[in-house]
Structures
1.
Amino acid sequence: MVSRLEVHDDDLDSRAREVLREIIIEHVATGEAISSRSLSKCGRFQLSPASLRNVMADLEDLGYLQQPHTSAGRIPTDRGYRFFIDYLMKSRVLTQREREAIDDEVAHGNEIEEVLHLASRVISRLSDQVGVVFMPTLLQFAIRSMDFVLVAENRIMCVIVGTNGVVVNKIIETRLQFTRDELEKISRYITVEFAGLTLDTIRRRLVRMTEDERAQHDRLLQKTIALGIDAVNDVTPVEHELVVEGATSILTKPEFADAAALRKTFLALQEKEKLVEILNSCLTEDALQILIGSESDYTQVHNFSIVARPYGTSASPLGIVGIIGPMRMEYARVAPLVDYLGLALSRKIEEKEQQQ
Amino acid sequence: MVSRLEVHDDDLDSRAREVLREIIIEHVATGEAISSRSLSKCGRFQLSPASLRNVMADLEDLGYLQQPHTSAGRIPTDRGYRFFIDYLMKSRVLTQREREAIDDEVAHGNEIEEVLHLASRVISRLSDQVGVVFMPTLLQFAIRSMDFVLVAENRIMCVIVGTNGVVVNKIIETRLQFTRDELEKISRYITVEFAGLTLDTIRRRLVRMTEDERAQHDRLLQKTIALGIDAVNDVTPVEHELVVEGATSILTKPEFADAAALRKTFLALQEKEKLVEILNSCLTEDALQILIGSESDYTQVHNFSIVARPYGTSASPLGIVGIIGPMRMEYARVAPLVDYLGLALSRKIEEKEQQQ
DNA sequence: GTTAGCACTCAAAGCGCCGGAGTGCTAGCC
DNA sequence: GGCTAGCACTCCGGCGCTTTGAGTGCTAAC
């Protein structure tokens, strides 16, 4: 599915590299196809349009550039962008302001859903692209405490705090009835007994306990086990959490000027399963990743690029943050933003972990 | 701001009414301007195009119809829609399927935010318009219980259950530190002391208690008061909850065929303050309300209509559900949907209340 | 009151034309 | 051998023109 285009550093001599670089920067800035004449006039090359045309023709032969039609300038191909990102791009350093904006948002998050939304929104705003935040299953989630609060006799709110400070909460419908007293006891019992373990382990232990002899006689223990199992099952749903924010950012991009393109793009952003699939594949490596157009099924169809990065501890990544946008985007500006957001989230989680 | 267009039942004779009715139904179905010829062919009138043209000319003079240009058919004005809704429309009866879909979603909601989202989504899906759900401030919200759960030493999750069964939860950051034990005591105290009162009353009482002599000496009571006030303040924020879902439904509507219109519309839906203002004005009457185009500032600019209805008990409405769409919509189908959703929500809340 | 007929209007679609931007190629220059 | 001026070629896009067809308003006759 995800197969990066193969480009090699020594495919191009230094002049061709500079030309490719300039074309991409210029095209990203204007959205127009770049002509030999405008390149010549930009002043960075002491060459006539005719000479630049030769270089450009070579770059086209190698698959880095293409012409929308015969009498137009050149635009980068996805292969061109790939070369740019791998060898030519100089990542911009974030401004104080950008770092503060990200730090602020991350500091504010409390519950996990809130954090996902804030992160997605801030990255969307800063990058002016569509923000995407993804949290895979919580089965590997180690807990610090698990509390149960009475909502109605057979509706219980479960609040789980992870060792990483992340909070998840969910209301559970149950056939059994509970009193406040019982719930307090159950909360204590489960927290003492299972703190530090992952939800997956906890569920397995609870299931095993069902057969335990003690559980046959102890009514409260039975209820504890039943409630615990319900809780774990309810907070680790099959559908992963995927938050997509700032879809309106694409409204102003010239590549989506016509209604049909807009329509297609909005619908594409709705296909969350596809997105989840791709983002999941980004989880393998603990570093910023950029996917361009044809490098995956999803991005190919829509000429999207994805800039994404896992967050959480490198040992157990918690999820992925990133952005989706047209292939034509300022990678040098967006990449460090995504990277910093990932780092900030990871750092926050690590701090909480140590606090404990 | 909200001023319904004035139309009178006896403005039109029965033939004109039938013609207006047919034109609106036909135009809503096709999106096209309706010509005298197509009307004549539809079979409901035993009249030639020429005769119908006379009727149509009259309807135009009275402001119920308009022509996009000289040689086009007629389309309804907002005044025309208003007459249709007030006097001509026969609301469709909901199908079993639609009622079940709504009932199911309403039954599933637990926390208040979840409910808002589910309701907004289901009404958007069924009506194929943009779903809007609005919950005004919770200050009038009477509580059944208030529980506090330890998340970290200075981060507490507060879970409030209303007498109407609605659940709100929020994490509170506090300077004071709390132990599990203390929180259990505080939860009990507040629940026992304040059950049945509104958040507004509770806050006022807590503030008054600050000056109480006992509070000067009792450390735990001090902490209780501080935490209680924080909790009430945190769950009744200034910005009201407004959930807008299904914005993509407008993608397929012909009135938004061109990119500029799409863009404008999406941006309009982002202006939540304006929307809140209008929806708030719908709270006064405990019935379904339909706002058409020029009947409010907001809808005028964008040629929108709003179909909305309060929910909650008639004594204290909790919020508003509704949809936003182009003026050209199937009011006869959408109106009963919105109405039923409002009823279902109200009914659910009432049930919970009685359960108690 | 109804209708057939006719003149009129106007949007939308089709067509041809031209200009401009940009390229590829070739031949000549350093 | 690399660079560049010049030229022929291509193609998009805009402009103006005409045609078509849908629909109306009006008038006169039934």
Note: The two ends of chain A are 40 Å apart (CA to CA).
2.
Amino acid sequence: MADNNRKVRVRFAPSPTGALHIGGVRTALYNYLFARQHGGDFILRIEDTDSQRFVPGAENYIIESLKWCGIHTDEGVEQGGPHAPYRQSERKEIYLQYAKQLVQSGNAYYAFDTAEQLDALRKQAEAEGKTFAYDHTVRRQLQTSLALTQQEVDERIARGDNWVIRFMMPEDEDVQMDDIIRGHIVINTKTLDDKVLYKSADQLPTYHLANIVDDHLMEITHVIRGEEWLPSLPLHYLLYRAFGWQRPEFAHLPLLLKPQGQGKLSKRDGDKFGFPVFPLQWDAPDGSSAMGYRESGYLPEAFINMLALLGWNPGTEQEIFSMDELINAFSLDKVSKSGARFNPDKAKWFNAQYIRMADDQRLAQLVQPIYAQRGISVTIDRAAQAIALIKERATFPVDLVDLTQKLFVRPADYDEKSVAKFWKADNVARLAELRQLLEADSITDPAAAEARVHEWIKSKDYSMGQLMNTLRIAIWGVSQGPSIFHIISFIGKEEALARIDVAAASLGQGA
RNA sequence: GGCCGAUUCGUCUAACGGUUAGGACAUCAGAUUCUCAAUCUGGCAAUAAGAGUUCGAUUCUCUUAUCGGCUACCA
């Protein structure tokens, strides 16, 4: 059915009902990767056909999120394009004519039931232990254009009665469908109901109609969306057939599951799991706010890499992928079929890998505000040098500052445990000797200085671990951290000697 | 309830009828280091259950179980 000569065009079509969660971002990402790999277009369409659930700011949030992720749209609400507008609320007029076309062709009908009447029918069915379905068994008994005369229908519409247009589902037909990820699927229409295509409540189409019409008009070739849409695939197939349109290929992605508990990840989950579910911080109109990956210190490349591997894998053992590598390696038939629960630890690991690979200057820029916040003034170059010393031990940008802070500011206090362990009379006396040695040394080359000091310690038959840690406490405040000679060479000899003196004055001679 | 989908280490996954069922994260040891990380080495750890088909099933079929989705004038 799909014509392989058509240029690949895919869309990400979120509903602006709140922040985009990571499942949505992943759907966008897979669409983007697929488009780029095939030299096609990636379109951002906003499906705001639910006036009740519309949330101001959500659309902008979606756009900003995609930008941060490095997912570039070719056409969409922001930059426009040949099929503008890309916001369904601005395409209102289009849908009604298509809905009417379906009525005319005998594929849909008007229904005049009120919400109360439908409610009553559902309650009644429930009381009988059944589930009410608006389908072929009832559509001729209810107030529909199938049961009423043309004249009655015209009158009701003319006098302003509420009406909807419903799809007329075939009574008993096996719909044969193909999904790129799931293969062949068959569903009998007996189990399906007559879905509303056009709503009276807000004079807008439902998702089903708007989606098919727009995908057709926008020449979408592949629909890549979440698995929650699988049940409506037969309806969509039938709609394409009713219109006589060429339908796109479909791929239904496995869902992202809640990290704990059960169910699919939802927007309401916010960051209650101790890590974000949103790409960017989301300040909801109700005043609540949820953390984002960006604000938590994730690099967008790490975030994307982690997300790409959640439900897809290249079949090789490669795990670190740049966006370009992803575009190259991505393939829909390597997308897994089952839902994925993601692992916060693995996400952190990815971030650490990317911090390690990141350019020192870039990290210094990124972290500059944190230094400033702590009242530490450093140049980018100096910060970059400091970061180079410790970046392989950082997971988040804030770690870079934590780990380098004392390169710029003397230790404010001395770690109790370290002091108890190493700040002893013997060690302190030897530290005084070592101080003299250092004073006489140039310490321009950390490795050479280290070699000289180590040799001296050995010649004196002192304990390496004891003395070096005593020195570390004096200079660094705690018995952990980067190479002490790198520290000394970074802060300079004068500062190092001063720190030894300060420590001696404040910690005394030791026990 | 009905319909649809899924089911490999704790987690993400590889193995498209023949492997000692592989990797990564996490975890636990050891090595290394001036310390802490990082790094390296090694360990623990899985085919939901039961029937078939087959010389041979993680892989194909069926049943059961479990999980998930949908079942709105929401998307």
Note: The longest helix of chain A spans residues 22-37.
3.
Amino acid sequence: MPADRGRAAGPPTISEVAREAGVGRATAARTLGGYGYVSPELRERVLAAAEKLGYRANALARSMSTGVSHTLGVIVADIGNPFFAGVVRGISDTSRARGFDTIVLSTYEDLDEEVAATNVLIDKRVDGFIVASAAVDKGEVAHIRAAMERGIPVVLVDRAVAALDLDAVVIDNREAAREAVETLIAAGHRRIGFVWGPPAPEAPATRRELLAEASRNLWTDGERLRGYLDALDDARIPFDPEVVMVGRKTEERVTQEVARMLALPDRITAVFCTETDAVTGALRALRAAGLAYPRDVALIGFDDSSWAAVMEPPLTMIEQPVHELGAKAAEVLLDTIAGTEPRREMHTLRSRLIVRSSVAPPS
Amino acid sequence: MPADRGRAAGPPTISEVAREAGVGRATAARTLGGYGYVSPELRERVLAAAEKLGYRANALARSMSTGVSHTLGVIVADIGNPFFAGVVRGISDTSRARGFDTIVLSTYEDLDEEVAATNVLIDKRVDGFIVASAAVDKGEVAHIRAAMERGIPVVLVDRAVAALDLDAVVIDNREAAREAVETLIAAGHRRIGFVWGPPAPEAPATRRELLAEASRNLWTDGERLRGYLDALDDARIPFDPEVVMVGRKTEERVTQEVARMLALPDRITAVFCTETDAVTGALRALRAAGLAYPRDVALIGFDDSSWAAVMEPPLTMIEQPVHELGAKAAEVLLDTIAGTEPRREMHTLRSRLIVRSSVAPPS
DNA sequence: ATGCCGCGTGATACCGGTATCAGGTCGCGA
DNA sequence: TCGCGACCTGATACCGGTATCACGCGGCAT
């Protein structure tokens, strides 16, 4: 019953514990803080008093005094996306194991929200943070630069940012995309739709413009485009802007765009989706067109999930090592915080194509 | 270029800004803190100095001094579950709009983790928190009680806890389950499997034991069981322990259990799943048994999602107002923090059965 | 010219910890 | 018996803000 603490209003402080135990403040602090020396007898008294009062150290005060918060920040695009949820779990599992809490913030792919999130983390004095940034070019990284200048360690996850010289933990996006598209090509497809998401209002007409556009897009998507082109090039299939979607990758837009590609005189016989929501969007378009996969259209997408396996027929998908991605990012960050010289390199993890039954030869 | 701050090591403090501006510390504090009076001229100087130095207030120090952190805590079972992800988004959207940050912690359905999470929030001195607690009986709520005794406002979300007299924001679980099972019964089903998750090792043999078990289970699942029984009772269908699954609702276990129910001499012709992962688990069992829905087995589950709509045939599911659930919980908590007398009531939101094509009469 | 009032400003105590350091006690050797 | 050192303990400065309060200065009334 910690209620009889006299006039004290808030939670018990170390001074109150000291008074209760009849010792000096410093002695109580040493006992409870686990530093310095305290005789067994006094230690016992302090512990008993703390127990009685229900004392818990004020982490804010401690951080103020020591300058470290034992807290990591995490900024992701959307925590509701199973991909990021998995990454976050990887981060919190390993950071918790090393005594760090995590504060997770979602930006919902909005750069202003990302800046705001960064400021929240700076203000709360996290010891470092991990970010899957929506920033692409130099003009968009000021907030991260600002954090770096304050001496806050930063690690990028999922998305590398060319304008930033930082550790980044990513997967082999280009290779993964290439492998998927090669699988489609090997099955005999030549008209392969590409569901992409650069900010451009319409599809670039030429390869050159396409690549230019790629550098204005998220790094992951840029890489995936390169993988798509790699596979096309190897098979000497000409690039056709008509079968690549541009603009925001919402499920609705994907449905419209795939429907458009399906209505083309020379319609697509396969689709490659760079995101899981794009897969459901594409599937809706197929159904609306009265088409079935893999018979009429073959399909491969990014980010495997449980439902992809129970679809009938089950979907061939690219599986990303989400937990490892997060765990590795946390590890690199924690090492940097611990003082290990930052290497500032790109840590590339391998993804895996899970072959199921959504790919068949074109009809 | 905030680099020429002299010998200062960390980020700039208010004293440094004051010195730079050539004013007293208090004046700089008043300007930057937005309180008290400062003449336009000095204000201008302070602002310029802060800008030049890249000053950002230390939220920790501010909280120490004022006693409020403008931060809400959120404890959910699994942020990777789209249901909780939606709830969290609802919470952060409305709390951000009212000037509060949120710290989200996942317990992965482990009570010890929940206790640890609660302590983290207490230690970080959040102004209040929202929790979807895994606690069921009196012996498991000590950590929440402790927070309440410290004067920290707490609001429950998704799961009410009988042992706690607190505001709770939930949906009409019992009614939702009843409606779903009634739909199954209306289609002609009498053997309806129930995928449930009480801690019991085996299915209770009698109704009485079942209900007793329900009170040892998560509140939501208890209510959903009652809804299931309500529907059975109304149709005078006897309860059969053989068709209710008990124990942890992992996807693998669901698959095994549904397979068992499918192998019964008097096999089930319909399944009701109280969770989205249970739906995929059940679907796997169907496929393994060479059965198709809705022809061989009808199916309804909790938590609608995009993929449920693109399944072939599309799934009939219960949609929960996830965002509203979170928004309402945040609202109630924020009001309590703001000093409005807490009402300690149950706020019930309506769910909705989305009828698609996974229910047909038994063959 | 003097006194009073009020406004604007800066000095300072405080929040609850950490960490340094001074001082008191005790034991042991000379 | 005295002195010195080791060992504990408690007093206190500090972290970076907030908030109270005292003080100096100018203006106005008398």
Note: Confidence is low (pLDDT under 50) at residues 1-7 of chain B.
4.
Amino acid sequence: MTNTIREWEYHASVAPMTRREQQQQALRRDVIDAALAQLDEGGPAAVNWRALARAVAVSPSTLYTYFESLDALHTELIVEIYGQMAAEVARSVDRQAPATERARQAMAGYRRFATRHSARFTLVFTDVLPGYVAPAGGPTIGAQATVLLPMAEALAEVTGEQGVDIEAWSVGNRARAIGGWSQLHGFVCLEANHHLDWLGDRDAVFAAACDRILSTTLF
Amino acid sequence: MTNTIREWEYHASVAPMTRREQQQQALRRDVIDAALAQLDEGGPAAVNWRALARAVAVSPSTLYTYFESLDALHTELIVEIYGQMAAEVARSVDRQAPATERARQAMAGYRRFATRHSARFTLVFTDVLPGYVAPAGGPTIGAQATVLLPMAEALAEVTGEQGVDIEAWSVGNRARAIGGWSQLHGFVCLEANHHLDWLGDRDAVFAAACDRILSTTLF
DNA sequence: TTCGAATTTCGAACAGTGTTCACTGTACGG
DNA sequence: CCGTACAGTGAACACTGTTCGAAATTCGAA
């Protein structure tokens, strides 16, 4: 860890990186990608230190140069996944559409991500790691808020609340927000964990649930 | 494994067990209790074969006489926990009360179990074990239905559906049932996984959610 | 370019895991 | 009472996360 300020850092504002740092960052990405692959394949408990080392062709002990521990890697994974999910949700909404329609699109995106990447969804939303607690004030909290942002915006537009920070809303509107989110989350959880496999017309039931959510929390 | 039919089995219908079988069953219970303790302490991934063996003062290999594998034990755990949860829900409802009140009590029981035993709740409702899938037609399916029984009864009473098998209901009533369940489940999931810790008035928000559930699915 | 220091990498080791297997000792049934 | 069936065992195997000392490599300054 060097504290010397390299001269070109004053001019190049975008990429203050030596060759080594670039390679390091590339390897970090490779590790995270491999971890996502392990996650998709075998579930949260299958994310495996030694297998990750093999995947990036490096000794297990070397990996400790890049990540402090398996738990630290888990935290980074959670942030990464929240980002992916937020992107999926944001990509699903048409910013030109009216609030109701945007909310519906956002919910569809939420569901799509959960069903397509159920292991990732499970990792970020349920406590599966023994003794793991999200670091208070850590990065995972804000990352989660990003997922809900489009829905919060739609709701704020309808209710007239200023800003998008739910905690700052009125008690009634906050309860409405939580209510809508938990309705959506409940269906999606059950579906992602295969508790609704026996349902033939899941799409129709989800659409009905969305209608109910919209009519009970947006109006 | 002996196939000979013991004579007294014809007469004693309740306890066809030798001393040995009794001891075996007792040890099985001890193991399951120890597993529940491990689960409560360290989450689903912490249920540990060798520690279980230590807890019941037996060699790890001996445990294989009683359970086929760790996965088999997991399955038994899931059934056991569904039973506990169903008992908690059933115990919460006053059979004399009207349907609406019974539904409210059942939902409170559902929530109470989830918050008081979040690790058990997580184990049964989310896929945390790599590659584990509930054996189709296995015991876990029916066990889950038992948890929902009081709510299904209340809903059946209101809608006039015959019987309690949701799959046999009309499309509309089935969608209502799923909708109500997922609303309840969503709030409870978020709460059990500490995503609502920032909410000061969780009880009030839950009560409001219950009101909404009752008004949108029971009437 | 060369030298010294810092840092990255590695292999070996430790304690732990689930599971298998050949081997006991014991308790039961005929 | 004896033979057998079976519960119980410890050692072993292939894993896991993590630590540590030594070797190798890279980097910055002279």
Note: The CA atoms of residues 94 and 152 of chain A lie 15 Å apart.
